[in-house]
């Protein structure tokens, strides 16, 4: 890389998009600004521009990197609905035929992206493209409001599935357990019922490794995190001195077995059938 840079002349700006993804090894950020002092470069000067949505990224840099960068931070506020509309008008003029969209459609798309994605231009463009694809699929020549609504629901669905797929194995096993219980109308289910089903799921997916399920308490710790993330609802029951206390668990309104199945398969895992017969 340095030999290629030195073949140029003058000053070169290196732009690192999503610089926070560089991870714990920030050596490159130390070396680039000092490349002439270190002796890596002779004929060119290097400047570094890092772009990130993570405002806390700089805190995790080592002291030597912070000293080397001598950075100046510039913050850009999220786009508002009017700015998103301007961006969408520009994209629509390039990507869509004249007469296939109205100003009201652009305004609706920008408003939804502003409300639901904190002014994300990427979300707004995805939503406009999705709306156009739905209209095209229906064989109509103009995007309608219902196409935008359908595209927005589709994006939301995909975002939820992606969030589920990002969970660790234990949480996915628990969600799969709840999915099988829900399919046979056994939710909301008591903690012991979820744990019994969870044990079957873990053993089904770990026949070769021999990994054993967590204890009920260990599973419950992960289950509590799923409640915190909004994937699961927990109801505490109290039947008094005679009946005792217990908790019941089920999916939140936005989650269901089909989304869990998609998330499992998105991670490259087979959707194995798990029997819930005998669990109580």
Automatic annotation (TrEMBL):
What name appears for this protein in its UniProt entry? Orc1/cdc6 family replication initiation protein
Quote the InterPro entries the UniProt record gives.
Answer: Cdc6_C (IPR015163), Cdc6_lid (IPR055237), ORC1/CDC6 (IPR050311), Orc1/Cdc6_arc (IPR014277), P-loop_NTPase (IPR027417), WH-like_DNA-bd_sf (IPR036388), WH_DNA-bd_sf (IPR036390)
- The organism's place on the tree of life at top rank: Archaea
* Keywords attached to this entry: ATP-binding, DNA replication, Nucleotide-binding
Q: Which GO terms describe its biological process?
A: DNA replication
Q: Does the keyword Nucleotide-binding apply?
A: yes
Q: Which PANTHER family match?
A: CELL DIVISION CONTROL PROTEIN 6-RELATED, ORC1-TYPE DNA REPLICATION PROTEIN
So what family is this one in? Belongs to the CDC6/cdc18 family.
Q: Which SUPFAM superfamilies match?
A: P-loop containing nucleoside triphosphate hydrolases, Winged helix' DNA-binding domain
| Domain spans labelled Cdc6 C-terminal | 175-264
GO molecular function annotations of the record: ATP binding
């Amino acid at each position: 890389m340095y030999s290629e840079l030195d073949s140029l002349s003058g000053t070169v700006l290196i732009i690192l998009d999503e610089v926070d993804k560089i991870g714990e090894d920030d050596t490159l950020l130390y070396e680039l600004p000092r490349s002439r002092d270190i002796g890596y470069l002779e004929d060119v000067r290097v400047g570094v521009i890092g772009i990130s949505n993570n405002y806390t990224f700089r805190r995790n840099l080592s002291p030597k990197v912070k000293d080397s960068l001598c950075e100046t931070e510039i913050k850009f506020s999220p786009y508002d609905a009017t700015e998103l509309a301007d961006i969408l008008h520009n994209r629509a003029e390039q990507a869509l035929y004249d007469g296939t969209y109205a100003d009201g459609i652009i305004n609706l798309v920008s408003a939804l992206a502003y409300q639901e994605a904190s002014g994300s231009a990427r979300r707004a463009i995805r939503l406009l493209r999705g709306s156009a694809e739905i209209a095209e699929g229906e064989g109509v020549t103009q995007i309608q409001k219902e196409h935008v609504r359908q595209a927005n629901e589709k994006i939301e669905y995909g975002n939820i599935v992606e969030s589920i797929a990002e969970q660790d194995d234990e949480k996915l096993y628990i969600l799969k357990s709840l999915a099988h219980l829900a399919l046979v109308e056994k939710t909301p289910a008591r903690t012991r019922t979820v744990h019994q089903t969870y044990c079957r799921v873990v053993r089904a997916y770990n026949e070769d490794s021999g990994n054993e399920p967590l204890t009920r308490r260990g599973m419950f710790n992960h289950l509590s995190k799923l409640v915190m993330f909004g994937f699961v609802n927990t109801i505490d029951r109290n039947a008094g001195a005679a009946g005792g206390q217990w908790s019941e668990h089920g999916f939140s309104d936005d989650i269901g077995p089909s989304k869990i199945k998609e998330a499992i398969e998105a991670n490259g895992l087979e959707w194995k059938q798990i029997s819930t017969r005998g669990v109580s």
